[in-house]
Description:
The chain is α/β, with parallel strands linked by helices. 33% of the residues lie in helices and 26% in strands. The protein has two domains: 2-171, Thiolase/Chalcone synthase (Peroxisomal Thiolase, Chain A, domain 1), CATH 3.40.47; 180-322, 3-Layer(aba) Sandwich (Peroxisomal Thiolase, Chain A, domain 1).
Amino acid sequence: MRRSVxxxxxxxxxxxxxxxxxxxxxxxxxxxxxxxxxxxESRHIAADDELTSDLATHAARAALDMAGLDANDIDLIIxxxxxxxxxxxxxxxxxxxxxxxxxxFAFDIQAVCTGFLxxxxxxxxxxxxxxxxxALVIGAETFSRIIDWTDRGTxxxxxxxxxxxxLEAAEGAGTSDDRGILTSHLHSDGEKxxxxxxxxxxxxTQTTGFLRMAGPEVFRHAVTNLTSVxxxxxxxxxxxxxxxxxxxxxxxxxxxxxxxxxxxxxSPDKVVVTVHKHGNTSAASVxxxxxxxxxxxxxxxxxxxxxxxxxxxxxxxxALLRW
Length: 323
Ligand code: COA
């Protein structure tokens, strides 16, 4: 059976670090409130002249370097982003040009914070169908550009960054011992639009708009949806939560991560956490956390990884893979 295996990872964070103390000078908040309600201590913010495509290109280059590949070895680029450089063309085509990739094809996926899971599942299907041998899957965001910096309920949570993986075709036996993506599960519920959305866009207001969120309602749905989509992945493979070596969750809020981990009865030392220093980087958060745990040696070959995320739409999803 044809499988797709993640053979390399990369990430990029803008240089500028924004601390809770600085935010407390901008809006009516405190370091204590932000840390106790979200676990976030600091986050990275893109420079004025840094675009989502620039962040994505840095992350992609890091992944290509790890793999020892050239951009022209890649058949497909997918960029998951809710903050594209322009309304069109796709940010992925800008990354294609930046990397000097002459063939193949590139497109964006929009599923907000679940974007990386949607992009990974899409690339996995292209690889499994035989249409693509190598894919570059990137999550990249400049959420600082759609944040209302006067809204203390949101501006303390979101941030900028990019993460990337290279997915390559490999032969597997078709069992859960195979390396690669074993199963992926995607969901959406358009009825929940008003709980998390951006109040602008080309067709509605002809402006970019700002992120609007009903925080406590989103919080309630998050733990429920994430736990259920993790169980769905385990049920599809006949594995149990005890088999998971690493949970790599969307980094929205430490309390959501802890709540999901508790429901799965996972020891906290099996959960990769970066939210304290990255904030919520939307589609970039899962590949950023993955890259950190790969590069510091926590993730080892043969281990079972569970990736999950939830975002505006609502959208939510999971991927279970063997490293
Ligand atoms: N600093 C200080 N006070 C703040 C604040 C801030 N930055 N933001 C909100 N508050 C206030 C609220 O106005 C509210 O005051 P009130 O009771 O006088 O109205 C109070 O703090 C409590 O707010 P509440 O929203 O109930 O807090 P909470 O414990 O639910 O935490 C969030 C708020 C946003 C951190 C939390 O709801 C959350 O993380 N939600 C999920 C968000 C998320 O992850 N979204 C992305 C999913 S992809």
